[in-house]
Amino acid sequence: WVLGGATTVLSVVLSMMLISKHLNNMVNPRQQRFIINIITMVPLFAVDSYIGLLDIHASETFVMVLDSLKECHEAYVIHSFLELMFSYLDVDKNNVPKQLKGRHLHHSFPFNHCFRDMH
Predict the structure, then answer these.
(1) 82 with 29: CB under 8 angstroms?
(2) Which of 72, 2, 80 is closest to 44 using CA atoms?
(3) Burial, 34: exposed, middle or buried (Cβ in 10 Å; 0-12, 13-18, 19+)?
(4) Based on the number of CB atoms within 10 Å of its own CB, is 80 exposed (0-12), middle (13-18) or buried (19 or more)?
(5) How far is Cα 53 from Cα 44, in angstroms, rounded to an integer?
(6) pTM to 2 decimals?
(7) Count of CB atoms within 10 A of residue 44's CB?
(8) pLDDT for 3-46, tens place per residue?
(9) Backbone angles phi, psi at 27, to 5 degrees
(10) What SS3 class is residue 105?
């Protein structure tokens, strides 16, 4: 667990250094904001993994809350990544590209019982 702790600290420190460099050199704020959101995934996953490595039985609620936060942040990072790609490609998210127009969105289980398919 010592090596895990050392790599966790290293990843947190390096991530914070990279984030601070982006914050100090805001050349393209729209894209860099998304990049910073993506970088924040590294320390969160590192800390969560290290806590899982320690195998703390006394605080299962804490581990469950941390895992839930990690999963929600992962969804937000996926959104940030897509927004970053739209920004790089100069695609306006309000105007759907022609390749995506008219496609059907089919929901998977269990959402297919709650929502109807979108057109």
Answers:
(1) no
(2) 72
(3) buried
(4) buried
(5) 14
(6) 0.72
(7) 17
(8) 999 999 999 999 999 999 999 999 998 899 999 999 999 999 99
(9) -85, -45
(10) strand
